[in-house]
Design a protein that fits this description.
CATH class of the largest domain: Mainly Beta
Helix content: 10-25%
Bound molecules: copper (II) ion
Strand content: 35-45%
Number of strands: 22
CATH architecture of the largest domain: Sandwich
Radius of gyration: 20 Å
Order of helices and strands: HHEHEEEEEEEEEHEEEHEEEEEEEEHE
Low-confidence stretches: 1-14, 20-64
Shape: globular
Number of helices: 6
Largest sheet: 6 strands, mixed
Distance between the termini: 56 Å
Amino acid sequence: MSIEKEKLSHANRRQLLKLLLGMGLGGGGILWAWPQIQRSLLKSQPNVSSSVTDESSKATKKIVATPLTFLRNFDYGVLKQENGRVIREFRVEARTSTIKLNDAVSLISWNLNGQVPGPTLRVTQGDLVRVIFYNRAGHSHSLHFHGIHHADMDGVKPIRNNNVFIYEFEAKPFGVHLYHCHVPPVTRHITKGLYGMFIVDPPQPRPKADEMVLIMAGYDVNEDKKNELYAFNGLPNYYMKHSIPIKQNELIRLYLLNIIEYDPVATFHLHANFFQVYPTGMTLTPTHTTDVITMGTAERHILEFTYSQLGEYMFHPHQDQIAEAGCMGVFNVLKA
Ligand SMILES: [Cu+2]
């Protein structure tokens, strides 16, 4: 195995060694332990997801993480204390798998933990974030987090197939952020599925609400550097067929990200209502109220709203060609 060529930073070597010791694998050292790391880590990987077929095993995995389960599923990692400090440790694995976008179109996705989008990672400002990234996708990939951190942890360096890298940084500032692969061409790595949301909560939690994540993305199915299909949370038109149930008069807190490549902007429009905007999730009070918000690629916000009347209400970008190609959904307001 070629981990020695990966030139892990000293900090990363230390972390890896700690990890190995924690697993009772410390005796052999990093080089010799690598196959063991893989076995141990894979064994301890949660049985995730998905709407995809794992190409490496050729076995179709059960669909567990549909866009509906993804919607309200937050990964808080494994909580640890080291030297009195709160650490949140995540395990993220890059894979290559086929994803069925609709009855006619399948795509070979590059994904994280067998799902597109990748898991929504959630921490609190000031936590030490440790992301153990395994690349089993067959190509070089990386994880670049938005936020404030050291250059060594910026995730622009490709991590080759069958290598592991540990990203570690303090979670700051609070807000709704994202992570994605940064290996060029980044457009290709993102449109094939290597992105997810990274939420950093403020030290004082926000008020109670029905919280959910919507990520708008495009698919360049024929690799002509344009999107042919679009989706909220991975699957085109999913929320048209499976409306999102919400409760009458309950506060909805929507963590919204636009990761559509190739199209310079996309808006988000909510029917028969208005929402309050917390730009980049970096304020504790809303800055304005509207029913359509414009976002460039990688822009994201927290939107809050409440429906007082029962019924079905659409949401979609108001670039209607994007909506009509799959980026559209429905909230179904039910009696509380
Ligand atoms: Cu990549």
